[in-house]
Amino acid sequence: AETSSRDTSAEPLLLKPLTRSASDQGIAYRFVSIEVDRDGRTVQLTVTADSDASWPLTAARELDDALCHLRFNEPQLGTIVIRTRGDVDDVLIHDDALVNPKNHGERETALLWKRVLSRLDLTARSLIATVDPGSCFSGVLAELAFAADRTYMLDGVFEDDDSPLPAATICLTPVNAGPMPMANGISRVHSRLWGRDEAVAEAYASAGETLLAADALRLELVTITPDDLDWEDEVRVAVEERASFSPDALTGMEANHRFCGPENMATKIFSRLTAWQNWIFTRPNSTGPTGALPRYGTGVRPEYNFDRT
Fold this sequence. Notes:
single chain; alpha/beta
């Protein structure tokens, strides 16, 4: 009787060590993987959905570990291509626990997702999300697409696929309407549509709907929707383009563009002050002897150090 009446709502979470397999080509966790292209200075980050009750906590911890690894151990990898794999329903089954946590474990898991997504926002890397057949950008995983600097969504299916999957979709839920705010205190959807309250309301009103590429583009939730003929080239050019630019200039531009609307101490430090005074004007890619400013107008290309801050 004493055991059954005990309040377990405040008991600590029992965390198991993360399982991962690492090589020079990347890292494979249970639900997250990163694949490295060192020549292209690019990494492909994939999050796989699962209906298992352990998925929300485990996937968040693995994503956090992967982002920290890239931040501190892989400074040359300047572009992260974000993918998801799995069934949309496997993401949505965890939705209520992230929006309305009912116990200590669910509450801490929701807070961890909030922190991990904020870490993604503040990662000094170019973020490109690709939404294609087989992806599951819904609920909390849709936040990964909304955090990206560019979001590419395939219009239709890959016609030459021997076993074509259904067309890619995006599905908003209450998770996307505020529980996981950015450093500016508003949602990523709100940040994308800042200054247009009607567009924000229309996007939120679509929650629960399965949005195909045309719908997502109309709601301005994605950047571009190529068909299968243009998909490979559009994504390739975007990745190669980012890899050719000064990483310091990209950091400054991306940090400023990601955080609009309400200004607070966090956005002043991470998006404005640090980006311009520390990442750009005092680093050699800008003002060094082979940097962009000394060589401006000379006809000679600058030479960049491609390490990301």
